[in-house]
């Protein structure tokens, strides 16, 4: 028997457009950075970067996977998040996310206020999952 509908709705922590690039794939450093603006969703302990930034906010919040293809999904369990050291990028406000499988991503937004809210939300997600 199905529970009440609210149980099936995953909690959305955060969504928005961020600049991101993958720098390491499962331990293998990628030769080139390809920064792109990407619709990004944090929910249920998973951070998903979609292929583009054009998914509509309203539709994207509800069912992003039906509207746009996820390019990268990062499980926050066992991940770590730090501010990227200056040698990783000349851009400002860059976060470095390392996943448990040894992949690394840089995440950036020109607005310090916006990147700070993502930093807090992702760090909190990581912390909550490590408490399990
Ligand atoms: O680590 P790099 O090589 O300085 O990263 C830059 C390159 O990925 C560059 O691409 P091209 O080599 O095609 O120009 C990007 O346009 C830059 O944004 C990268 O540097 P930053 O410092 O922005 O992450």
TrEMBL record:
Leader sequence range is none
Using the record's annotation, list all stretches that form the PH domain. Answer: 11-127
Q: Where in the cell is it found?
A: Cytoplasm; Membrane
Question: What is annotated about its quaternary structure and interactions?
Answer: Interacts with SH3KBP1/CIN85.
Q: What does this protein do?
A: Rho GTPase-activating protein which may be involved in clathrin-mediated endocytosis. GTPase activators for the Rho-type GTPases act by converting them to an inactive GDP-bound state. Has activity toward CDC42 and RAC1.
Annotated protein name in UniProt:
Rho GTPase-activating protein 27
- Name the species this protein comes from: Catagonus wagneri (Chacoan peccary)
* Gene that produces this protein: ARHGAP27
Which residues of the parent chain are present?
A: 264 to 395 of 665
């Amino acid at each position: 028997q199905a529970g009440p509908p609210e149980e099936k709705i995953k909690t959305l922590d955060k969504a928005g457009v961020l600049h991101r690039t993958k720098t390491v794939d499962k331990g293998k450093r990628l030769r080139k950075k390809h920064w792109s603006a990407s619709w990004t969703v944090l929910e249920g302990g998973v951070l998903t970067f979609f292929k583009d930034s054009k998914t509509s906010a309203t539709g994207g919040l509800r069912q992003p996977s039906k509207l746009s293809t996820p390019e990268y999904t990062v499980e926050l369990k066992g991940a770590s998040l730090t501010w990227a050291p200056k040698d990783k990028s000349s851009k400002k406000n860059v976060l470095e996310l390392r996943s448990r499988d040894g992949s690394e991503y840089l995440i950036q937004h020109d607005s310090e206020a916006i990147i700070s809210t993502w930093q807090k939300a992702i760090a909190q997600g990581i912390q909550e999952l490590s408490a399990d």
